[in-house]
């Protein structure tokens, strides 16, 4: 069984912990930091429960010693002042969690169970490392080796040095501004300015002023002349993001700049000239907007001189591991996590299998949040958002509730049918789907064998009760009528 060390000078706490944790772990107790340190040197533990106020040493200082001894060991603080600065400081130091005294059995058992599971997962060698010092995590890299991204790179190479407008199309979060920056960096205008304007972020009148500038007194609040982006960007590249959200009045003026490289400031009469290359981007269906009268057809044709389609992340899964690595290095540096080693295999599997509706931007945000939330050297799957952890809960047949009513032996025989169906559908996720189905079958069979007893099932399976409960919930497992899934030993 897993081993838990409880360090507290209150014998009632030690007795409570021994009784509460007996079903899930072997419990060793100590009343002082010195005694606890001796035990940590002589034995291996899966979790530590540590009182903040010890008779011979402050718990926070002792935690630093534990961390030096074993950075993977989850430490749960116990304190009578759960809302105090002490508890906050404990979490800042990297504690796994903390519990308020007096202790309650169920929260104590659940938290220790979770700590044990994470200890086991974090002991597995990392699938993606955060320790590649040769990689440049500070630069804004354009990452991708999949065929769709190779096609994008080829398109950038073909058009970068051509003085023509480019329209970048793709879902939100795919990295359209990175394409625009690459076009600029590899163009003859790379020594000139590069400016970006988000057309969706500004009201129509402010967008017009932002692009073309205005004269003093042109409208209320115009107390002085303003130089617009078309003037500022003379000789360079102007990136117009979310071009589909531009008002018709502004569309007409942008069209004139594209055609003649001429414009007037708002409220002005002087015609100005500029030499600007326009790179635009959108995630909206411009052709449909033209049909509905929401967008100028002549502007679409002008912008659409060359179109680069940026694929969503789900169509370039081969790049996800490289992107994770890049964002992991960034987060390790930015969030000051020098001890971070990487991601567990299960975490990587869930990340790679997720569909990423928010694309690369969402992936980066999730990696940063996981690094921020983890208190262990290895990022485990429990730190992932629920919608991503749910990836592993995908069922072979959508909408099915997994139940032993139909018989687990019959369910096991459906694996060949599942594989055949996935092959017919030309799935690119056959292995993962087959593994999920097999896991579901094994859980059903063992739960049926134990009559729904979770503790016995977890022991037979060789996993923690917490992990088993997660899987039961994820796969929506229901036993046949009259048999309940129970927690008792």
Report on this model:
With 489 residues, the chain is α/β, with parallel strands linked by helices. It is 44% helix and 13% strand. It contains 21 helices and 17 strands. A five-stranded parallel β-sheet has the order 2-1-3-4-5, with helices on both faces. Strands 8-9-12-7-13 form a five-stranded parallel β-sheet. α13 crosses α15 (359-373) and α18 runs antiparallel to α19 (430-449). The protein is elongated, with a radius of gyration of 30 Å. The two termini are 14 Å apart. Residues 133-140, 391-411 and 481-489 have low confidence and may be disordered.
Question: Ranges with pLDDT <50 over ≥5 residues?
Answer: 133-140, 391-411, 481-489
Label the structural class.
Answer: alpha/beta
Question: What is the distance, rounded to the nearest whole angstrom, between the alpha carbons of the first and last residues?
Answer: 14 Å
Report the C-alpha radius of gyration, rounded: 30 Å
Q: Which percent range describes the beta-strand content? A: 5-15%
Mean of residue pLDDT? Answer: 83
Describe the main β-sheet briefly: 5 strands, parallel
Strand runs, count: 17
Q: Could you give the order of strands across the largest sheet?
A: 2-1-3-4-5
Q: Can you count the helices? A: 21
Task: Using the alpha-carbon principal axes, give the shape.
Answer: elongated
Helix content: 40-55%
